[in-house]
Amino acid sequence: MGLAVVAAIGFAVWSYRWTVPPASLALRLALIALRSIALTGGIWILGQPNLIIERRKEEPAAVAIALDRSQSLALEQAGSKRMEMVKEFFASPAYRSLLHSCNVQILGFGDTVQILPTDDYAWLADAPDRPATDIGSVLSFIAASTKQNEYQAAFLISDGAVNHGADPARIVKALNIPVWTIGVGTTEISPDAMILTTVVSPVVYQGSRTSINVGYRAVSLKDKTLTVSLRDRGEQIVGQAQVKPTADFEEGECRFEVDVAGAGRLRWTAEISRIEGELTYDNNRHSFYVNALRSRIRLTLMAGAPSNACGDLIRRLNRDEHIQLTTRIARGNGFYEGGWPDEKMLSETDVIFLHQFPARQTDRAAFAHWAAEVVKFKIPLCYFDGERADPLFAKELFERLPVTRIGQPAQLTSAQLLPAQRHAVIAAPDDIDYAAKWGGLPPLQFAPAGWSSKPGAEILAYFQMPAGQRIPGLVVQQLTDYKSAALLARDFWRWGLASPGEEGITEPLLGRLVRWLALKPTDKRVVIKFDKEQFSARENAGFYATVYDENFTLIDGAEVEAQTDLAGKNPIKYILEPAGSGRYIGGFTSWGEGEYRVAVSARYKGNPIGSDTASVIVEAFSIELLDTRLNEDALRKIGVLTGGGYVPIAKADSLLSTLEYPPYNKTITAHYRLWGIWRLLWLIIGCLTLEWFIRMRKGML
Questions:
Q1: Cα(225)–Cα(175) distance, rounded to whole angstroms?
Q2: Residue 394 near residue 362, CB atoms below 8 Å
Q3: pTM for this structure?
Q4: What phi, psi does 342 have (nearest 5°)?
Q5: Structural domain range at position 645
Q6: Beta strands 594-604 and 559-566: pairing type?
Q7: Domain count, the chain
Q8: Are 511 and 518 in contact (CB under 8 A)?
Q9: Segment of 96-105, 197-206, 394-403 carrying the highest mean pLDDT
Q10: Which residue from 77, 301, 354, 641 puts its CA 20 to 30 A from 618's CA?
Q11: 696 CB-near residues (< 8 Å, 6+ apart)
Q12: Rounded to the nearest 5 degrees, what angle is found at the Cα of 593, between the Cα atoms of 591 and 596?
């Protein structure tokens, strides 16, 4: 830039080395100055130079304290209250010294992470109420904030329960600071009887007999007689068994055979008898819902070509005795099994799988006729992406999918497919470790530039990219008259190799997907959906309502009111908050255990649209109460892997007293833009105008 300025001044001098008519030296110098300033200003605008000033500032060390706020921290065990220990920690001189010398940030965590204030500790008076402990999430939060906040260390105060989210041992690899873990609670065993699991197919069939396995755990109840019962919605006992533990720690299972008398959403409750002196009675009872269908699900699989992936999918679907599978595998313009499914076959079809279909060689005219019939019968669709698929000419059918094509994928990449949320398709209601199971499966191939999810669709699983980007992998959508899904992995069959048999991931996932698609959506213009099947009594029961107009197009700007009651008593009313794409969010804090009824009504521009009613279970049962002992091994492992350590909370003062975090010099860089573009423009215009005026007055050429 300096050379350009010198050249500009040289050009101005050369321009006025002589003039016609001749001018005095003073006038020529003035003209040279005006032209030099104008040219230099133009160069300055093009170059846009900045002044950079760096200075060093002494900052106190930044320290994160992650505090467990889950329900198990509110327990009293072996004569000691866990929260009293936590309060003593924050009142200790060692902590006050740390607060004085360091920039302390407190992160309260359970199933979510929340920043707690350090100038007001009123939150210590609130009983911990989060329904799960996700240590991995708070460690991920710290890892993402390490560079910005310049943490030098972190302290994790918890009982070590890991019952939600990713394995913390994997997350700590992203940390570059020591984590000191502080254990709260005791490893001593207290008497406790609990319902551990309820295992039943998420979908059963009317008129059939289904098995319900109720898992229980008995702690310090050796030789005690316990009764395990199963009740229906009317609290009538439909199954009962007595068990007598022979050890201080025993887990077992009772199997009940139950007649499915009706169809729809059925509710059962498993319970185990209460024993005096138990740690808590909140885990002695557990309710759950099951969907009952009227017949076998009729599934038609349309495949673009025979392949190992297609064969693997067919084998797994055929293993499900409740699925009646019909296949059409493309062979040129036709199919190996015969012709296109006719109108009669489509009228009896519950679900259609499109496996890399339609293909490039598919007869377009025949496909268009068949697709029109599928749309007419509103048959739920699930699309499996693949290299043979050519969806570009299948506009009518692909408009019904939850994803849209955003371009031709240039290349494939591989990434881990991980669950984004708990959903009826992703996991059974009692599957606690579903996220960890997915994390242990091999990466899958996909086209990152190929698809995007539509507004209103739900992303159930995503591909985790190395840079942190999340690409939709399994997407579903439920509208008022049909459902659809899309699995965008190119080699989903690999999961079948890694998780063989019914106990793996693949077959249960496919079964749940087929059953979810087969359950018919309502034709209501207002539809309620809860965040999950049931809630703990100490958490907010969240839900949302979707609102449609006469043409079943999503409506924004509606007035949506909800009313919640428990067994018809104590109704409360409130307004739902708009969330975009026709959704309105609400929730309520329960005032007791039981089945809550939520009624929602909507109005648009003063006119009523419709209403919907749904029920949800709220009970004390929580995964936090399945194991209330202090897990020292998990906490010690986190400390060792990060270069920190582990101590019980009784010795936390000694730990803080031995650690020192001196202030550090932080480099602060400031950028100043020299001059402004408009000022320079006005200066250039002024100089050029003045130069032109002088030349005109002197008659210069």
A1: 49
A2: no
A3: 0.50
A4: -85, 180
A5: 58-186+629-665
A6: antiparallel
A7: 5
A8: no
A9: 96-105
A10: 77
A11: none
A12: 80
